[in-house]
Here is the input.
Amino acid sequence: MESVNALLDGFATALHPTYLLYAMIGVLLGTVVGVLPGIGPAMAVALLLPLTFSLEPTAALIMFAGIYYGGMYGGSTTSILLNTPGESSTVMTAIEGNKMARRGRGAQALATAAIGSFVAGTIATALLVVAAPFVVGIAINLGANDYFAIMVFAFLCVTSVLGRSAVRGFVALALGLTIGLIGIDPVTGQQRLTFGVPELADGIDIVLVAVGLFAMGEALWIAAHLRRSPAEVIPVGRPWMNREDWSRSWRPWLRGAAIGFPFGAMPAGGAEIPTFLSYVTERRLARNRDEFGQGAIEGVAGPEAANNASAAGTLVPLLALGLPTSAIAAVILAAFQTYGMEPGPQLFESEPALVWGLIASLFIGNTMLLLLNLPLAPVWAKLLCIPRPYLYAGILFFSVLGAYSVNATVVDLLVLLAVGLLGYLMRRFGLPVVPAILGVILGPMAERQLRTALQITNGDPVGLVNSPVAVVIYLLITLLLAWNLVRRRVLARVGDRVRV
Amino acid sequence: MATTTTTGPSGQPAPSGRSVDHAELGLSGLLVVVGVLVLYDASQLSTTAAQNGPVGPKAVPYAVGGLLLLTAVLLAVDVLRGGHGESESGEDVDLEHGVDWRGLVLLVLVFLGASLAIPYAGFPIAGAALFWGTTLVLGSRRWLWDAVIAVAVGFGGYLVFTSSLGISLPAGVLQGVL
Here is the structure.
């Protein structure tokens, strides 16, 4: 019951008018960026990272978490009303959701997405309250070798599980690790990969990496491939559902929450897998399976619920272990780092007001999203019509603003352009962004843990495996690699059928 | 090119086609260059410095350099066996037509110009120029209206970030006016 008391204290923090305001700004901003094409929550938080220089931590993190949840809501609007989802997590929603909208049931699709997100988000956040202290209890006894094993596990998961090509995942990871190496080695003070450029001695600021890969890379990619004919937006009224829609939706919501949360908590890179599994499950369980592919409401309700539940699941390893498992979690971890904080068991001890205030704000933000999004859906739909030149000019403007405000030097803008060109190449060659950003952020942390672990045993490699937790994780890694070979074949087959 | 597959006019071989994308082999070559660079840089580090433990500053760079070379080889093998990286799609992305090199190069130039102008012209003006230039490159043809919006964004963004968020940005030639 300790965590219930802590959560109540958290509500006392989060209900403070200032924090309510930041939560409100966060969910509104998140919904807007989720709806806007070409810009997602990870990019939005990356662009806002410079705010950490002036905002206090609790306010900034509550806002960022609001953007995360809001972005999940907003993304569903785009995929239902426009048939070309930009984020992998909403691909599954688009399949049935867009068909529903074309059949004049867009309002019902939006409603089941919004209410399902609320239900699943609330359940999953409650699970977070239970799970986080449990994981903290385990994490408190972990040594450097255990953390190193967990990070290796995370690297392998995001590279081999996500995306269609494991090779390209590893290419992205290697490039990210390389960027993470740049700067002064913290132990010996020697410069690595700086080539004598003094501005690189402190390493490449994470703001530049995140904004470069997400925002700059996207703007350059768009400049090369802008769709000249405007996309067709399906007009929609206020979301509502009738009795039949409710009775067909509530089970998929609950199943989606049950699928989404654990997958979000595992280092498998966010919502891509759980939304896929939820869709497949709903199609299998549906009474009228023929309707799937024509706009079945279950196919929207399930994946949208799984999507939001996985967002809460992602926060378990992030807060309790300091381990990001998706792009946005990595950027939020970067925000913690700019405050000199390291999420993990110690943070629950040293900053309980922040951690529990943040968790409580998720419940509040989720409720705000439901109350806002049902009446405002037609307004959000209008955002889809924004002229693209303004949208991407705005993204570039805020990229420069964010990058320049880090150190007030033009060199940083040149670095930003370089990272942006890398982001362009990654989009061109189908290299996933998540392994790269994890490599940049987790790489230096993993190196530190590796060196600490081997220091303890004076260089004997046994120091990496002389703990039961580490052994279990290396066993898991072996299983994962073996299972992955099998799964890749199965998924390719199912994927071909879904794509009809 | 295979006739049964949809193939873009340039640089976009069909996903299932057997044609080898030479640009992807170029990426493999780039990885080799970066890998060699990382390994060379690591070899220049000294291990005699107080490294406070058996694992020095070289170990991880060597591992990362090795990983780069390994992925370069694996990627090349994958490409030669018909593997293909799917270019990222999206709401506003049109992969049917080839790369708009003119737009890409112009956007980079606009970005560079605006960036280098920040210390002299100040952030509001440089930012407005960046916004305006980008709208033109991306095909907007309402120059005057775009300029009005660009000035509003440039000055508005500057004022919001400097006054209410306390982030310092150079005013440049407008020093004293703003």
Q: What stands out?
A: Chain A is about 75% helix and 0% strand. The radius of gyration of chain A is 22 Å.
